[in-house]
């Protein structure tokens, strides 16, 4: 009788250990599978821009929550990281489209006056700055470059935002460890800097009065 009890207890003990080990192995497998699923997120090329209302709401929130470009850049990256990979790509594409639509000689004239000069790259970063000021400011200045005078801040001599150009790329890299540009479908999305129109300038810095015709207020108050 005593031997039977000992054998029964031994069996139960071994069975208990086996069950425990199986559960542990099972949990480990679940953990491994979850990691694999996360590491192999399917990301396909996209030509779809982020919804414009969502795009501008993210920028508006960044304006309300920060007081300088450095903090605004960090805020934007943090907010974009909350989007899906496709939406992050879409944020970049929406930015590219706005840059494409605002690539014109009159706005370049305004940028040249307000910054005291404006190279190709400077004009790109100027328009990034303009977008970072929000929807209302962007479209108002795009329509009438001379209204840029309302955004002039005393003591500020540079109106560019290079870091804005990278916020979506940085957010994408932080969350996927991949390069965003590798997932843009350039066959379908053509509103980018590779396809900017050739501009015919009606103003010339060597003839300053030609700039005054396009942006009379900016020229009168800022050109030296």
Describe this structure in words.
The chain is mainly alpha-helical. It has 2 domains: 1-40; 52-222, no CATH class. 61% of the residues lie in helices and 0% in strands. The radius of gyration is 28 Å and the shape is globular. The chain starts with a helix and ends with a helix. Mean pLDDT is 87; it is low at 1-39.
Can you summarize this structure?
α3 crosses α8. This protein has helices spanning 2-39, 52-65, 69-80, 85-101, 105-115, 120-132, 135-143, 167-176, 209-214, 216-222.
Map the helices and strands:
Layout: H1 2-39, H2 52-65, H3 69-80, H4 85-101, H5 105-115, H6 120-132, H7 135-143, H8 167-176, H9 209-214, H10 216-222
Helix pairs in contact: 2-3, 3-8, 4-8
Number of domains: 2
* Whole-angstrom Rg: 28 Å
Low-pLDDT segments, ≥5 res: 1-39
Total DSSP E strands: 0
Biggest pleated-sheet summary: none
H/E topology pattern: HHHHHHHHHH
Secondary structural class = mainly alpha
Helix content: 55-70%
Mean pLDDT over all positions: 87
> What sort of overall outline do the alpha carbons produce when their principal axes are compared?
globular
Assembly type of the shown chains?
Answer: single chain
Content of β-strand: under 5%
Q: What is the overall number of helices?
A: 10
Features:
mainly alpha, 61% helix, 2 domains, disordered N terminus, 10 helices, 224 residues, globular
């Amino acid at each position: 009788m005593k031997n039977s009890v000992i054998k029964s207890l031994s069996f139960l003990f071994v069975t208990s250990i086996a069950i425990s080990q199986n559960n542990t192995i099972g949990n480990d497998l679940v953990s491994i599978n979850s990691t694999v699923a996360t590491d192999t997120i399917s990301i396909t090329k996209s030509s779809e821009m982020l919804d414009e209302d969502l795009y501008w709401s993210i920028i508006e929130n960044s304006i309300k929550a920060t007081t300088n470009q450095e903090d605004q850049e960090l805020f934007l990256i943090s907010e974009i990281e909350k989007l899906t990979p496709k939406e992050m790509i879409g944020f970049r594409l929406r930015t590219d489209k706005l840059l494409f639509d605002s690539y014109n000689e009159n706005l370049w004239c305004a940028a040249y006056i307000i910054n005291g000069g404006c190279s190709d790259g400077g004009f790109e970063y100027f328009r990034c700055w303009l977008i970072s000021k929000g929807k209302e400011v962007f479209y108002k200045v795009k329509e009438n470059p001379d209204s840029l005078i309302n955004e002039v801040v005393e003591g500020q001599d540079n109106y560019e935002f290079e870091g804005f150009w990278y916020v979506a790329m940085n957010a994408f890299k932080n969350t996927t460890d991949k390069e965003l540009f590798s997932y843009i479908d350039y066959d379908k999305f053509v509103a980018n800097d590779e396809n900017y129109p050739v501009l015919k300038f009606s103003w010339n810095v060597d003839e300053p009065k030609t700039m005054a015709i396009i942006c009379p207020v900016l020229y009168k108050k800022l050109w030296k």
